[in-house]
Each structure stands twice: as C-alpha cells, then as structure tokens.
Amino acid sequence: MKLAKEMDYHPNLLARGLINKKSKILGVVVPTINRQFWSNSISGIENIAYKDGYNVMIFQSAESFQKEVEIVETLANSRVDGILIAFSKETQSYGHVQQVMDRGIPVLLFERVCDELNTSKVVTDDFLGAKKITQHLISRGKTRIAYLGGPLTLGVCRDRFHGFQSAIKSVGLTMSPDHFLAMEEFTFENAKNGIFQLWNSKNRPDAVFCFADILAIGALDACKELGIRVPEQLALAGFGNDDTSRFVSPSLTTMSQPSFEMGQLAAKLILEEINTGSEQPIFKKEVIQPTLVIREST
Amino acid sequence: MKLAKEMDYHPNLLARGLINKKSKILGVVVPTINRQFWSNSISGIENIAYKDGYNVMIFQSAESFQKEVEIVETLANSRVDGILIAFSKETQSYGHVQQVMDRGIPVLLFERVCDELNTSKVVTDDFLGAKKITQHLISRGKTRIAYLGGPLTLGVCRDRFHGFQSAIKSVGLTMSPDHFLAMEEFTFENAKNGIFQLWNSKNRPDAVFCFADILAIGALDACKELGIRVPEQLALAGFGNDDTSRFVSPSLTTMSQPSFEMGQLAAKLILEEINTGSEQPIFKKEVIQPTLVIREST
DNA sequence: TTGTAGGCGTTATCAT
DNA sequence: ATGATAACGCCTACAA
Lengths: 298, 298
Hints:
2 copies of one chain form a homodimer.
Chain A lengths: L1 H5 L6 H8 L4 E6 L5 H16 L3 E6 L4 H13 L4 E4 L9 H8 L4 E4 L9 E5 L1 H14 L5 E5 L5 H16 L9 E3 L5 H13 L6 E4 L2 H14 L8 E3 L5 H5 L6 E3 L2 H17 L9 E4 L2 E3 L5
Helix pairs in contact in A: 3-11, 6-7, 8-9
Chain A binds a DNA duplex through helix 2.
C-alpha cells in the first residue's frame, strides 16, 4: 500500500470489472430525478448500496420508452451487477427487461412495476392508500367526490383509482362520469384546467381526489382564481407528500410515501439477490403502506 | 449485425473501455439531487451528453467532503472521460480534484466552484443577482433589510452577500449587525427561527433577503405564525425560483437561475475539452445571469 | 513466500 | 478482404 501510494497507483476499475465479471455498480432507471419521490428513493438506494461497497449509476428515462430501452441495454452492457427500474409512463411491453434478466442480470422493479415480470418488487399500496384518503374525504361529509388522475393504462393510476372507487362504493356513493378526469401529463396547468372544467359544469363536486400532489396544487390555484373556499366548498386531497404540499396554503392533505425507505428496501432486496449468487432466488414483493397526513385542505 | 443479433451478442463496455482508454461516461458530483437546481442541472448535462453518445453517472456528496473525495476517486478509477463537480459545503481544500486533473482527466466546476483550480467553470452571477433583488427591495421603499444566508466561507454565500451589501451601500443604507443571520444548514426550520429572532429584537427589519427559496419559505411561515403581513410589514425575497416559490402564498419574489441551461453549457464545455484531445485546453469561465421574478412577497 | 503465465472481451495492427 | 495476434490492466492459479 505504501509503495502504491508512492508510485501514485490507482486501480483500473474497468480492468478489475472485466476479470471479476462484476462492476460493483447498481444501475437505477427512473422517469425523472426532478421529483422528490424519485430523488428520495435514489438516496435510499445509495444509502444501502454504499455500505456494501456498491456505487449507483442513475439514469432518467424522461418517461420515454425508447430511452428506457436504450438505458437498460447500456446498463447491461456495462455489466452492472443489478438494475433497479421504475417504468416510464409509456412502457407497456417488457421485452427489454426480460432480455437482460435472461442474460443473468438481477433486476428489481419499484413503484412503477408490472405483473408480467418475475422479479422482486417494491411498491406503494396504492389501492389502500387511495381508499384511505377517500374515506377521509367521506368522513368530512363529502359526497360528490371527483377523481383527477392519469390514464388507467398505468398500473399506479389503476390501483389508486380502484382504491378510490372502493371507498366510494362501500358507503353507497357513486361517482358521476363527468367527475372522472384523466390527463396524460401530471402538470400544474392540466390540473388547473381540470378544476375549471369541473366547476363550470352543472354538476359541481364537493371534493377532489388528486392522483399526485402537483395536481392538487394546481387545483388549489384554480380554486384561488375562482374564489372557491377550500375545504368548505371544495376539499382537496393529494398523494405523495412532496415538501411543497406542506408549504402551500391551505396546506395539503395527502398520503405520505416513505420514499427513502422504499429505496433502501429495494437496494437491500437486490443486493441480497446478487450476493446469494446464481441459485434460484426467491422473489419478494414488498407492499409499502403510505400514511395519511391531514392538513388544511380537507 | 445480423449474426450478432442471432447469437445474442452484446458488446462488453468494460472491455471496450479498457482497450480504448475511454468509457464514454461523464461523472457528475452534486451535493444532492433532491433540489430542483441540481436535478435540473443534471438534466441539462444529460441532454447534451446523450447527443454525443455519452452516458452520465450521477453521485451525491450529501454535502460531505469525505464522501466527495471518495466519489471523485471512484470516478477517476472508473476511467470516466470527464468529471463535473459542484462542491459540497464542507469542501475547503481541492487536492482531491487537482489529483485527478494531474491524472489527465478533464474536470469542470459548476455553481459551487473555487478560484484555486485551473478548469472551466459555469457559475451564476451571484453578486449581480443578489444586488438586483436587493435593489428591487429598496425600490419598494424598504430601508432596514436583513440578510438570511449561509456562512461566508462558502463562495456562493460570499458573493451573494457582497452583492447584497453593494446594493445597500450604493444608496447610502447600512445593515445593522444584528440583521445578519448566517446558518450552517439551509432549512425551513432554521429560517423560521431566524425570523423569530429578528422579530423579537428591538430593531425589526422591514425586508429580508434570503439566500435561497427554502429559507424564504420558512420565513414566510414564521410570518404567518407571528401575524406579520407580507410584504407590507416585512417583504421577503428568495433566490433560485424553485417550483415551490410560485405555489406558496403570498408567492415569492426570487431570482431565477437557468439551471437546465447551465447544465447544458457545462456539458458542452467539458465535451469540447474532451474532444479537442490533450492539447493545452483554454479554460472558460461562464457567468450566467439570473433574472428577477417579481411576485407577491415584495 | 515470491514470481510468472494466462485469460477476461475488445480493438488495432500486422500478415496473409 | 480476411485472419491471426498482441495489448489494455487486473486477478487467479500454479510453479518455483
């Protein structure tokens, strides 16, 4: 070691990886790092990975299937020891992932998963989470609850919508069809327009379940412009508990997802799989419970 | 290519990197990806890098000097083709970076930089930005402006403070010493306590220049609790133009930093350096102007 | 204990 | 054009 330092020797990780057939790198693919859920998850993954001497390579698919395919291929070709993926919104087929699994690379799916692949998974209990917060809206005396969310092709959207429905139905309520708004992109502006639309109809809701905090924040802004009192005239519920949800006013009732811990768990599972070697691994599906955070908007 | 596909051949990027002495990977080191400025910068870097066939490896120093040193070493040992660094708050010495530069690896500094290293740099014009927004506060008739920021050991803090001072002095104002609050950690809570402290003194300010949006948001919350009217009794200015600054109410006046574009520029500069080969490169320092976004808090 | 040969998967070079 | 060979830097196995 002394001589190494004297000679300014530094190991070449490429060569080491080549001979060892492992790079001590985990690859992570997320839709974006520009939202707290994802960046926190990544921090959780890193937290565990570092302890085990692993580095983490982060990639953003930017919700593009094409890019996701390229990234997964690159990751596999870089001989990363494991890949953690949260699918893009566009992703409907999973051949690109099955392929790297066939090549013997451990894969773990988190948050945005699919049923078709036989891997370990870490997901939020979206059904129960959505059900709980909808029940909370109902407990506030709301009966005409609208749904503001994404296309039901995306698993997460489907689950949350079903949870929402389940809560409604179990108390004998129904959702009028024009209270179901699905948008392709989860943006502030889209949500705002959604509220305008809902409020201009003859059949105004008295509460809105929003698929994500950013939608609820857009909804809130629409309410301000329209002079709607929140939560008296219209209660708003979000999902995710982004920092922002605490800072807006009225502050936002939402479901808190333990994103950091989910990342940690995901890393633990895949490292387990990596370290137990090539024996037939048992794939675990961990379903994480989000918790209700009640604030002013309900 | 056909045969390659038939045989399910995939190139081994480690072997390729070993022989080519280049990995087609850029390494990025940021304090955290959990703030929009950083995640947007990274998106900008990726945007340019991908076009040139480069992948981006992202690492978080978590504001720890020790971790930053380790990351830089790992990156160098992985034979990345270039390293983009934004220093951690703790970083005061730069030997770890000089070392990899001596090893012939191109390095670019962005946002959190230092004068000691001879590299290309991409920075915000913190001095002028702080000066502009302070002048804006002055133009609103404020005369007792407090400063809420970080330790002056951090270059960014120093520059913004000097810009603040310059604006104050140029109109013959002075800052009373107890209106200077420096905190180690830029958190909502710290900022809140700062406002409590300022408001409990005999010498209340009528405006606060906050080093970062999150501080202004904490300040805003303190104002709500204390019943201070913003901006009439106390005007608040932030820095960074995080999404949240638009969503709080009153919405926040702040300086907008073109983070995505700064990332793009940083990537362009280092790729230029990489592609021109080992000839003596000319190091550029790009100083980006932030723009004033006037909202309700002033 | 210490030293040496061989191979990981590529690519560049040289010979055919 | 096609084919063989050496080398990138490291590590393992085997020989001394």
